[in-house]
Amino acid sequence: MDNVDQALIAFINCEQLDLQNGSILLINKQNNKQFVVAPTVPVALGYCKTFRTISEHASVIAANIPQLAGQEADVISVLTMVRDAGILTTAESVAARISSQNEDSKPLAPTRAFIITCDRPLAVRRLLETMLQTSNLTRHEEIFLVDDSRKWLNADENREAVEKFNLASAKNIHYVGAKQQKQLLDDLISALPQHESAIRFLIDRERWAEQKSYGLARTVCLLLSVDKRCIVMDDDVLCSSAEAPHSSNGIAFSDNTREMDFYADEQKALTSVIKREMNPLTGHAQCLGMTLAQATKKLGLEELNAESLAGANAPFLGLMDGNSPVLITQNGTLGDPGSPQINSYMLDQGSIQRMLAAPGGHTSAQANRCYWIGRSRPTFTKMAVMSQVTGLDNSHLLPPYFPIFRGEDHLFGAMVEFLFPQGTTLEYDWCVPHLPIEDRSEQADTSSVAYKGGIGFFSKYITDHTNYEPGIALDTRIEGLCLLIQELSESSNTGLQTLLQTDVSSTNASRLKAISAQFQTASQNQAPQDWLNYLQQGANELSQVLQISASPSKIGGIPERMGDGAVLDQAKAYAAEFAGALRVWPEIRDAASAIATN
Questions:
Q1: Domains and CATH numbers, the chain
Q2: What is the pLDDT of residues 157-199, one digit of tens each?
Q3: How far apart are CA 184 and CA 595, in angstroms?
Q4: pTM for the full model?
Q5: Which site from 52, 384, 530, 541 is most exposed, i.e. has the minimal number of CB atoms within 10 Å?
């Protein structure tokens, strides 16, 4: 087979036009080449979204389309014609584009580090103790503790812990409690009285006193770090890092799920990994704010070639070039996963085998909540979520967080992608210990695998309407984002219910597909019965759920006895306020920067 046949290729960045004569016109948006094909060809090309050789693509297509089973030679013939017509993209061309940087690099912005906490003074004291053992804190321009505690006694303990830390540390921490946050609120309202309602929606603690305001504290961090690089730490981590227990070579470009390993308890987890000399704050600052070309070199990949992209997510890379900014950095977790479910049916086979081999197998692994979750090599992804330590390049105009409800990280990630479609997220191949003080064993939710909805349907609406065309001005994108969310606020309850049902049903359909595939693999491998039972029960549940309309009142965090109509009305009201806040967010950021300067 010739060298061309060994080239890595993929099907990306193409428009499809129905010619109304039984044919489809494919148009490559990068080189404007076009080619007429039969309607079945785009279906087959849908399986060519990762960089593989033509023969590898043919095998995947034949395995997924029953009508083509055993016809790999014919598939190769068609793929060769499509490739020769200039419709397929080569990994070689993408590697060259990512490696080159046309714009002059600018100095990295200073870093500001933040700890966010809410009523966990024991965790704060433990974290501060580990920070005292950490070098290089003086490299950060400022360090803050943003305290969202609702109990005054806890807030007092946190403030005293900061004061004690400052007596022993070469770098002081600024305490930002209720008083300081109220001062920031008042100063912003004084500077922008016409935008008082928007400011209060985003950061007024009194407005959200009865709600779990997960996003509010993160927005405060953004306002205290305008034009800086912002690194945010949860209070129940340790300021230390460890190598991933499993490693692989190179760098990945993928949205695949994280890998996992499983431990009997925290002590076993901590002694099973190799501690790194570098603390997580310094670790995040390494590549945060760099261009993609700079970051790949910083991570040790001096030359990015076609072979480096084997198996990579081609549509994601099709948006990137060497100037793409690393806007967000994440890391792996060692210990508690931070969420009730780990969705074990989504794991790769290596992680599943480790889970089944752990003491007690799948059942114990689900219940004891002590894991490594992360990447075995540095991985660039498109959509950011959140890790227990997160880097945010706030020298770019990042959006605010939605102040309440879980899922604020997914909504933030969707908005960042909408505003900066050529940007990227980097997840490092090291992890940070996440060891909650309180017992979370009862939080493990293994009874249900079904998705019931949340503000995630806002996220889906945004990603479904993201324009990936380069060159669109940021101001235009901000206004477009505001209008999208405003559209949601002005939709009928019926329309909003349909959006929610679409989000819930599509998510559960994806879960059913994944869990069914895992059941088939587990059956072939004669897996333990408890794992097979879990998968079978999950498939049965999802099959039943897909027959039922989603109920807004069943979304997590919704007050009891609140009917579906009331939930939708409230969602629209919140969307209207959030759209208004987004529209004036650039002014709020500028005012916050001026307040900090003065």
A1: 4-87 (3.90.930), 111-234 (no CATH)
A2: 999 999 999 999 999 999 999 999 999 999 999 999 999 999 9
A3: 8
A4: 0.93
A5: 530
